[in-house]
Design brief:
The chain has twelve helices and eight strands. The protein has 310 residues and is α/β, with parallel strands linked by helices.
């Protein structure tokens, strides 16, 4: 792909337009699908394994991150069959704390970078932010695109910045942190823009495309995620490369999570029903998943003190 605005504009604006009414109607239809009890139990465990347990507040402390990382490894200390989450997502300065607490558990450390959540900083600062997080041990980097540049049609600028951040994810051992590209869909205004931004991020080498920072509303809506799932499906058909999807922000209940999993299965396909290819960015979802899991195991709901207050 030529890295100039004219070529990118022709390509991105040549993508099929999104039928807004059709996308919203299909998302609404998929959200009504019923799930049998056995399938629900499997879906809950899968959703737990897909959670990026997240704390991104100015008041975050080392103690809070240590507690969150411990919870990620053993979400339900009273039930050793409960799976661990996929990752813990923190600010770059707390990566080392999360990494030390998680040890060899297999739970990944994700770090938000590139002047999260606004993305308003020079490229040099964004790259330094990324390199610092990788040097501290981050397994994954969640970057934000420059929405102002994208909405102004400066597509080459956005693409080049993603490429540069991807290069900054390299580690001295020859490996690299996986790159999740946050589109901040709540600021993109249209489904067509969501599709274009998704393709732009994938063309630039993003390993995942992510809906939101969680700081802007609306965040991870089902129709927006459906459009992004269509994009990764079509991108794999066109290029042979599979890219993951991460809805983040506003997904709080087991019922919501299952709606997303049904949509993944129906739109992208079963290949994406895996933590390597689909994640939930969430801080409160895990607790509801645990309460529902306990309900299915015992036949009754536990009190609110069964789960920790994160």
């Amino acid at each position: 792909m030529t890295r100039d605005d004219a070529s990118l504009r022709r390509f991105l604006h040549g993508l099929p337009g999104v039928d807004r009414v059709g996308a919203e109607a299909r998302a609404a239809m998929l959200s009504t699908r019923s799930v049998k009890t056995t399938a629900k139990a499997q879906a809950i465990d899968l959703a737990i394994r897909m959670v990026d347990l997240t704390t991104l507040e100015g008041q975050d402390t080392r103690g809070k991150v240590q507690a969150l990382a411990s919870k990620a490894q053993r979400p339900d200390p009273g039930d050793p069959t409960c799976p661990a989450t996929a990752a813990v997502c923190v600010y770059p300065d707390l990566v080392a704390t999360a990494k030390q607490t998680l040890g060899a558990s297999g739970v990944k450390v994700a770090a938000v970078a590139t002047a999260f959540p606004s993305g308003r900083a020079s490229r040099e600062i964004k790259l330094a932010d990324t390199r610092d997080a990788v040097a501290a041990g981050a397994d994954e980097i969640d970057m934000v695109i420059d929405r102002g540049a994208f909405l102004s049609g400066h597509y080459a600028q956005v693409l080049e910045e993603i490429v540069a951040v991807k290069e900054a994810c390299a580690r001295p051992d020859g490996g690299a942190a996986h790159l999740k590209v946050i589109l901040e869909t709540g600021e993109l205004a249209t489904y067509d823009n969501v599709r274009r931004a998704s393709w732009l991020a994938m063309l630039a080498g993003g390993d995942f495309i992510k809906t939101s920072t969680g700081k802007v509303q609306p965040a991870a809506t089902l129709p927006v995620t459906l459009v992004m799932l269509e994009a990764v499906r079509d991108f794999r058909a066109a290029t042979g490369t599979q890219v993951g999807v991460k809805p983040a922000g506003g997904i709080r209940t087991t019922k919501d999570a299952i709606k997303f999993l049904v949509t993944v299965n129906e739109v992208a396909g079963r290949d994406w029903l895996d933590p390597d290819w689909f994640r939930f960015g969430a801080s409160t979802l895990l607790n509801d998943l645990l309460l529902q899991r306990q309900k299915m195991a015992t036949g009754r709901y536990s009190g609110p003190d069964y789960v920790t207050v994160d």
